[in-house]
Specification:
This is Calcium channel protein. It holds the Pfam family sCache_2. It is found in: Cell membrane. InterPro entries: sCache_2. Keywords: Cell membrane, Membrane, Signal, Transmembrane, Transmembrane helix. The chain is of the alpha+beta class and about 280 residues long. It has two domains: about 130 residues, 2-Layer Sandwich (Beta-Lactamase), CATH 3.30.450; about 120 residues, PAS domain (Beta-Lactamase). About 25% of the residues lie in helices and about 30% in strands. The protein contains seven helices and 13 strands. The strands form three sheets. Strands 1, 2, 3, 4, 5 and 6 form a six-stranded antiparallel β-sheet that branches. A hairpin with a 2-residue loop joins β7 and β8. The radius of gyration is 22 Å and the shape is elongated. The chain starts with a helix and ends with a strand.
């Protein structure tokens, strides 16, 4: 069906499962239901209400509407700049083609998927899960930002990073310290330890740690982090370690699980965050 093909040809950059809080997802679903009920009564005149501050704005949640050709018809968020335009222009052709698929669904059925969009609160492009429902030849949608990467995403991120460091170690270390998007994805970032000196040589979030003795690092609760990791990795090529650390996306101290990999004299690590404090 062209209807369901269009939106996710246009919007989806990711179709993986994420971890939004149940409360945030329920708020998004509730807002979508209110919007659908309102649209069924008001028709296209509802677009004005969807596109202004008011009852269809709930914190970072807002309603947007697109038609079967991919044109944005209404939006209460940053995508308002696309009203009247083909949203498919927002994606590079290779990405658009890579995620082209038909998402069949009957009218009245709420579906969900993921994509990436700018969060107006922090100005960053972040993963977002959207809930959408078709009403006639319109698709009404509400999204919720996903502040935490999944363990699977963290492992894939580490795999890509280790491959890059093995191929171009100096350039990759420089890119990490320059906060390159290649090594900085949502709440995923890298840190790299030189096992010969035991000190940080790269950090994708806090450059003040560069040159610091990793063995001295503790989490905000005083739990040793660096020393036990260095001990564990003496006779292992990879491993994992749990501690607490500040999430750069949420700004909160959260449970974190670090994924560790040795390559040559370097220890490369990333980690995924779990439950917020």
């Amino acid at each position: 069906m062209r209807l369901m093909t269009f939106v996710w040809t246009a919007l989806l950059l990711l179709l993986t499962q994420g971890t939004a809080s149940a409360d945030q997802e329920q708020r998004a679903r509730d807002l979508l239901q209110r919007a659908v009920d309102y649209y069924r009564v008001q028709g296209d005149t509802a677009f004005a209400a969807f596109s202004r501050q008011g009852e269809f704005i709930d914190g970072e949640h807002y309603v947007f509407v697109v038609d079967t050709s991919g044109t944005m018809l209404a939006s209460g968020g940053t995508s308002a700049a696309w009203i009247g335009r083909d949203v498919t222009e927002a994606l590079e052709p290779e990405v658009r083609n890579g995620f082209r698929q038909a998402l069949a669904g009957a009218e009245g059925e709420i579906r969900s998927a993921e994509y990436r969009w700018m969060n107006a609160r922090d100005g960053k492009v972040e993963r977002k899960r959207v809930f959408f429902e078709r009403v006639g030849d319109r698709v009404l949608a509400v999204g919720v930002y996903l502040p935490r990467a999944t363990p699977e995403q963290a492992r894939a991120f580490l795999d890509r990073a280790v491959d890059a460091i093995e191929q171009e170690p100096e350039a990759s270390i420089l890119a990490v310290n320059s906060l390159s998007p290649r090594f900085n994805e949502d709440d995923l970032y890298l840190f790299v330890i030189d096992l010969r000196s035991g000190r940080y040589v790269a950090h994708g979030y806090n450059r003040r740690l560069l040159g610091v003795d990793f063995a001295t690092i503790k989490d905000p609760d005083g739990k040793p982090v660096g020393k036990p990791i260095l001990e564990m990795m003496k006779d292992r090529s990879e491993g994992g370690y749990g501690y607490r650390w500040r999430n750069p996306v949420t700004g909160k101290v959260e449970d974190k699980y670090a994924l560790l990999r040795k390559t040559g004299h370097l220890l490369v690590a990333t980690g995924y965050y779990q439950n917020a404090e």
